[in-house]
């Protein structure tokens, strides 16, 4: 029974992650505005996902433990491009690409760099959610922020937490989900 539930957790996480940013993308495209969506939050989220993905690849973890990250990263990049386009800041796209691409490369220059980055990854991801919360608090308007995207984020955190626990991976893999799940739930609650 447990292997079947674990497989279901992985498959459902991958399925949700395949479409997790689509409601957010649709909201931004429909309004042709990124009002309420924090660029800083998105950049921090991208950085956190890149670190987590790079760490798992570097240490040779099984593909099923990180398969969703390339999918989410691609969606985040597309969302970032739309946000930059609709906010009139498209010139920053190259700068962000260089920073994120350079960071990807620099993470594995030395083992201690990737280990330190992974230890900071939870804080980076939490800062991402806090930046979005701050944006919502300041504007007092959820604008084009998608509640569905944040509810899916809470679900994926919960399913990854459970799957990680079942696979007996180390605490560094559990702590992001322990912190990020309540933040995602909080963002969802504020938006709706």
From TrEMBL:
Q: Which Pfam families match?
A: PQ-loop
Coiled-coil positions are: none
Cellular component annotations (GO), alphabetically ordered: membrane
Q: Which InterPro entries match?
A: MannP-dilichol_defect-1 (IPR016817), PQ-loop_rpt (IPR006603)
Membrane topology reported for the UniProt record: Multi-pass membrane protein
Q: What is this protein called?
A: PQLC3 protein
Gene field: Pqlc3
Q: What is its main location?
A: membrane
Q: Please tell me the species this chain comes from.
A: Circaetus pectoralis (black-chested snake-eagle)
* Superkingdom classification of source: Eukaryota
Q: Which residues cross the membrane?
A: 12-30, 42-61, 67-86, 93-113, 174-191
Keywords (A to Z) from UniProt: Membrane, Transmembrane, Transmembrane helix
Protein's cellular compartments:
Membrane
């Amino acid at each position: 029974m447990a292997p079947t539930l674990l497989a279901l957790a992985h498959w459902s996480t991958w399925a949700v992650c395949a479409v997790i940013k689509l409601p957010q993308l649709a909201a931004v495209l429909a309004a042709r505005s990124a009002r309420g969506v924090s660029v800083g939050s998105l950049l921090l989220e991208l950085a956190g996902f890149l670190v987590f993905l790079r760490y798992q690849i570097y240490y040779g973890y099984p593909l099923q433990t990180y398969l969703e990250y390339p999918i989410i990263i691609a969606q985040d990049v597309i969302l970032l491009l739309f946000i930059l386009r609709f906010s009139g800041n498209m010139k920053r796209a190259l700068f962000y690409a260089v920073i994120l691409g350079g960071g990807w490369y620099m993470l594995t220059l030395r083992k201690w760099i990737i280990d330190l980055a992974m230890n900071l990854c939870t804080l980076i991801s939490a800062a991402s959610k806090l930046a979005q919360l701050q944006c919502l608090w300041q504007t007092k308007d959820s604008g084009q922020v998608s509640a569905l995207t944040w509810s899916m984020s809470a679900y994926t955190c919960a399913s990854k937490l459970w799957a990680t626990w079942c696979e007996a991976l180390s605490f560094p893999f559990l702590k992001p989900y322990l912190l990020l799940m309540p933040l995602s739930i909080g963002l969802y609650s504020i938006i709706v």
